[in-house]
Each structure stands twice: as structure tokens, then as C-alpha cells.
Design a protein that fits this description.
This protein has 129 residues and is mostly helical. The chain has a domain at 32-116. The chain has helices at 4-7, 32-62, 68-97, 99-115. It starts with a helix and ends in a 14-residue tail after the last helix. InterPro entries: MFS_trans_sf.
Length: 129
Amino acid sequence: MGTREEDAPLPIEGVVDHLEQPIFSRGAAGGWPSAAFIIGTEVSENFAYCGISMNLISYLTEDFLESTASAAANMNTWSGLSMMLPLLGGFIGDYFLGRYRTTVVSSLLYVLVRSCSPSEIVFFTPHLH
């Protein structure tokens, strides 16, 4: 029989929890509660993206009084930025913050933006009327 040190589980190399403690089993963290959170977040994000995409050109032409060509160009810019910014977020998360801090910071930013009413975002509103 081996000694106690030989029988002790070894931590998984390069894997830590949110307290920077080593993980000894992949089954000890994550699971279905984490998957439900990720799936719910992705579903709500896709609903928001599709809703904005469908209404942005109408909003820009009616409320901002832009031409259709200008509204389409702004729509393309918004769409491209929304597709490219996750790459920047991934870079920042991987090299500077770490996955747990990135998740917390991005979730707090998401909640902060979603909790603002449209009347509080005065710098986006044109003063045409």
C-alpha cells in the first residue's frame, strides 16, 4: 500500500477556481447550474441583438432623420462592431483580467447598461425637436 501522499489526488494543471485555488476534479465545479446561466444569457443576448437589428434603420430614419443610405451604413457599422468586440473582450479577458474577473466585470456592465432607462441616456438623443 502507498503512503497518504501517494494516494492524494493531484490538482489539474493550469486550472483554478474563482479563489485561485487548484481544482482536483473537473466534476467539482460548473455543471448544469452554470450551463443554465450561460444558455439563458446567450438567449437573452440574441433576442436583444435581433430586436435592435430589426428596428435600428427605422429608428435612425424616423427619429434621427437620417437618410436611408446613412442609416444602412450606421447599421452595418453597429453590426460589425457588435461582431468584433467579443474578440477584444476575449483578448482582455485572457491576457489581463482572467476568466472570473472578466465574467464579473462584463456581467456588471451588462446589468448597468440594461438598467438605464432611455431618458437617462441623454447623450444619444438628438435635440432636433
